[in-house]
C-alpha cells in the first residue's frame, strides 16, 4: 500500500513506514507535541504497539472505491538537505462511499512556526481534491490547539461544529471542493 511522493517548494513528502518508527516514537514522547492528542504516549509498550499497528495498516484497500495508492501517511523532510524527520501528514478514509476523508498532521516541536505544517498539509489537500476527487476533507482539532487551528484556517477549512465523540473538546474543520 502506498501514497505518492509529493514535493513542495521546501519539503519532500514520502510514504511513512517502519523506517520512521524511531523518529515517530521520539516525536510522540514530547509532551508538548502530544498535549492535545489522546494516545498511549506514556506507556512504552502500548505506544510501540499503537505505532506499529498504524504503520502496518493497509490504507484503505477494502473500502469500496479507494485503491491502494489513495490514502495514508506521509513522512515530511526538508527538500534540499537531509535535515532529518520533521513530522507526518495523514489522509485517512472516513466513509466507504469515498465522499469524505480526514486530514491530520503532527510535527516535531523544533519545526513549529516555520510553515512546514501548512505547506505539507496544503499539498496533501490539493492531492486529495485534484487526484482523488474527494469532495469533503475534515480535521478534528482540540479547541485548545491554536497552532493546528491556524493551519486548518490557512488551508481554507472552516469550523463547522464539535466532534460527536463523547467527552471530546475537538472542533471539526471542513473544506469542501466547490467543483
Folded structure, characterized:
The model is unreliable at 60-71 (pLDDT under 50). The chain has one domain: Aminopeptidase (3-Layer(aba) Sandwich). The protein has 179 residues and is α+β, with helices and mostly antiparallel strands. The protein has an 8-stranded mixed sheet, with helices on both faces. A hairpin with a 3-residue loop joins β1 (6-7) and β2. It has helices at 21-28, 44-56, 116-130, 146-154; strands at residues 6-7, 11-15, 72-78, 85-93, 100-107, 136-142, 158-162, 170-176.
| Strand arrangement across the biggest beta sheet | 1-2-3-4-5-6-8-7
Percent helix, as a range, is: 25-40%
> What's the CATH topology name?
Aminopeptidase
Q: Outline, from the CA principal axes?
A: globular
User: From the 3D coordinates, which CATH architecture would you assign?
Assistant: 3-Layer(aba) Sandwich
- Count of the domains: 1
Q: Average pLDDT value?
A: 81
Rg from C-alpha positions? 15 Å
- The helix/strand order is EEHHEEEHEHEE
The tally of beta strands, per DSSP, is 8
Structural class: alpha+beta
Oligomer: single chain
Distance between the termini: 29 Å
Helix run count: 4
Query: Can you summarize the main beta sheet?
Result: 8 strands, mixed
CATH class: Alpha Beta
CATH superfamily: Gcn5-related N-acetyltransferase (GNAT)
Strand content: 25-35%
Low-confidence stretches: 60-71
Amino acid at each position: 500500500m502506498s501514497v505518492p511522493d509529493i514535493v513542495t517548494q521546501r519539503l519532500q513528502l514520502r510514504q511513512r513506514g517502519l523506517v520512521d518508527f524511531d523518529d515517530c516514537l521520539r516525536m510522540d514522547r514530547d509532551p508538548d507535541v502530544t498535549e492535545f492528542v489522546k494516545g498511549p504516549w506514556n506507556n512504552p509498550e502500548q505506544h510501540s504497539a499503537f505505532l506499529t499497528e498504524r504503520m502496518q495498516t493497509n490504507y484503505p484497500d477494502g473500502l469500496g472505491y479507494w485503491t491502494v495508492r489513495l490514502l495514508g501517511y506521509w513522512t515530511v523532510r526538508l527538500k534540499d538537505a537531509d535535515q532529518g524527520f520533521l513530522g507526518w501528514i495523514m489522509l485517512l478514509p472516513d466513509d466507504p462511499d469515498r465522499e469524505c476523508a480526514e486530514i491530520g498532521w503532527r510535527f516535531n516541536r523544533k519545526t513549529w512556526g516555520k510553515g512546514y505544517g501548512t505547506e505539507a498539509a496544503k499539498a496533501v489537500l490539493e492531492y486529495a481534491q485534484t487526484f482523488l476527487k474527494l469532495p469533503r476533507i475534515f480535521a478534528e482539532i482540540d479547541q485548545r490547539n491554536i497552532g493546528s487551528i491556524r493551519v486548518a484556517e490557512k488551508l481554507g477549512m472552516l469550523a463547522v461544529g464539535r466532534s460527536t465523540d463523547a467527552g471530546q473538546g475537538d472542533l471539526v474543520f471542513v473544506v469542501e471542493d466547490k467543483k
